[in-house]
Amino acid sequence: METLTREHEAASAAPDEVPAATLEPAPQTRPCPTCGAALAPGQDWCLECGTARPETFAPAPGWRGAAAVLVATGILAAGAVAAAWAGLSADAKRVAASTTQAALPPTPPPAQAAPPAQAAPPPAQTTPPPAAPAPKAAPTPKAPQPSTSPPPAAKAPAPKAPAPATSTPAAPAKAKTKAKAPAKPKRTTPKLAALTLADDAASTYNPYARPENDFSDAHLAIDGDPQTAWTATFSGSQSGAVGVDVALGKLVGVRALELRTDTPGMTVEIYASRSETEPVSIQDPGWRHLATQLDVGSNERIRLGDGSERYRHVLVWPTEAPPDGDHVAVSELQLFR
Q: Which of 9, 32, 79, 249 is the S-S candidate for 37 at Cβ 3.0 to 4.6 Å?
């Protein structure tokens, strides 16, 4: 009974149990290279020390091959460059050597060796040579017969003409002459020419209406007679307020005035005007002051300009009488252009 019970339990338990041969093998574990802990097949990191498996980050086999190819290519390229550089250097050295050899002078040939000394001559023979035959007697020459004809006279050499001198006479030395610059023409001032005045050209200029008995006729100053004169009295408040006006009739350039007087030592002023009529007063801007002559002499020439300006009226205006007188006199007036 007990046996049947055990077989029944075994039969009922048999289907639930699986034979060990039918189960899959357990996965193999690998120890950690650092701490020795077991690593599952798919585990990349150690859970104990945190170290990664060495084969996880191993470089791919393709990268190593590419690096090897690149290194080999670089080595070959460097070798080619070095070979080309060596070839160029060799060519340059050959060209430089050929150029240097061409520039150097040719090398002289080596000196020839001296010829070998000649051997000494053999000793002379002691046997005397045979005697030479006796010479035959020379025939006796016949004496030349004297000629009866006189010898021809020697011709005297003709005298040679002297050779002409070949030396060329030296050329006369050229005198060194320095070219002179053309002289500048000197500017010459034309001589003074006297103006011809009309008989009525002179008049008394009396802008302040002095009495007529204070002066004489102005025509006496240009009548050509030095014994006659235009006179004016210097007295009172209007002393010297008159003068002699010479009308030229047209525009004329005047350069000088010649004045003769019987009252030397007086002072006169010379004015000129371009207007057809004389200005109304001595302060009128129509008068242009040309000169002032102090201490006038008996025959005084007064410069008035270069004649470039032209005028129609010339005024002789006395301003002071001589120190020892009370009047002025103008014997003659002459204008020059």
A: 32
The two beta strands, 288-293 and 310-320, are: unpaired
Pick the CATH number of 202-336 from 3.40.30.10, 2.60.40.10, 2.60.120.260, 3.20.20.140: 2.60.120.260
Asked if 37 contacts 49 with a C-beta cutoff of 8 angstroms, the reply is: yes
Asked if 242 and 329 count as a contact pair (C-beta separation under 8 A), the reply is: no
Alpha carbon of 100 to those of 90, 103, 185, 235: distances in Å?
15, 5, 75, 122
Task: Tell me the C-alpha distance between 237 and 72, whole Å.
Answer: 137
- 226 in helix, strand or coil? coil
Per-residue model confidence as pLDDT tens digits over 180-221: 666 666 667 789 999 999 999 999 999 988 888 889 999 999
Domain boundaries, the chain: 29-61, 202-336
Helices (H), the chain: 2-13, 61-103
| Predicted model pTM | 0.46
Phi first, then psi: give them for residue 18, nearest 5 degrees: -110, 135
CA nearest neighbour of 231 among 297, 326, 324: 326
87-139: per-residue pLDDT in tens? 787 776 776 666 655 555 555 555 554 554 555 555 555 555 555 555 555 55
Contact between 290 and 304 (Cβ < 8 Å): yes
CA torsion angle 59 65 71 72 (round to 10): 160
Q: What 3-state DSSP class applies to 306?
A: coil
